[in-house]
Amino acid sequence: MHRYSITPSYLLLILLTSFLLSACQNNTAIASKPENVAASITELTIESHGSRMSGLAYLAAGNDPHPTALLLHGYPGNEKNLDVAQALRRKGWNVVFFHYRGAWGSEGEFSFRSAEQDVQVVLNYMRDPENAKALRINPERISIVGHSMGGHMAIAGILDNQNVRCAIAFDGANMGAKGSGLFSDPEAAAMWSSYSDTLFMLKGWSGAKAMQEINEYGRELDLVTRANNINARPVLLIAADTAVIPIELHIKPLLRALAQGKNSDVHYRLIDDDHSFSSSRLELIKATEEFLNQYCY
């Protein structure tokens, strides 16, 4: 009589073979786990009212849909705050950045009201199911962050779109504050008109056009008149105590108007720095990250 011993390795081979045969017989697909998608950047072209706008999507690592911030530049947008975009991406947020019509090579002509329209176009683009899937955007977790005039656009964006979750304004202007905004008195009007004449990166724009738009549509642009649309959604206003965006004209009245809403969730922070927060970038980024992760994730 011959005796056979089965070694542990031989027994493991038998069990593995049996499992594979069983899987094949039951038409069971054995798929490998998908690799984790790395962080990346994607160029965007978004059409608004017949004009193409250029943009970028900073995409966070990971396969699942991410909360996403729409980052808006100011007037004209020399400071783009892309360090904020990079920092938010490291924390698991996507960031979409774009140039309004007529700004920095985007087609069309620039205006304040058309920039408000462009924000809504991009928000709709981000929520489109096909685009959201391609960019790994969670369409229920979209917030807006804007600087200076972009701060106006961020608050206008949330007030005019109930699908936006949160908004943050970095030293945000109210382009129609008390009907006159940046052109609130003769001295300010002369300064901003002269400055606007130098903004060659804004197509079809000039000081005369800026003043004309404010004179004709200042009341329509005033964010205070729309503040009751906030509907308890979180907002953070970060001010810099400078003469560029006077707090008492642009920020405090808006803060009060937003706070009057039922169940208001409005936050305010003052950072002692210049209009671009040049010496406080890490503080600005930390405040942005903490607010988004606590209230908007």
Give an overview in words.
The chain is an alpha/beta fold and 297 residues long. It has one domain (40-296): 3-Layer(aba) Sandwich (Rossmann fold), CATH 3.40.50.1820. 39% of the residues lie in helices and 19% in strands. It is built from nine helices and eight strands. Strands 1-2-4-3-5-6-7-8 form an eight-stranded mixed beta sheet, sandwiched between helices.
Brief description of this entry?
The chain is of the alpha/beta class. It is built from nine helices and eight strands. It has a single domain, classed as Rossmann fold, CATH 3.40.50.
Core attributes:
297 residues, globular, alpha/beta, 8-stranded mixed beta sheet, Rossmann fold, single chain, disordered N terminus
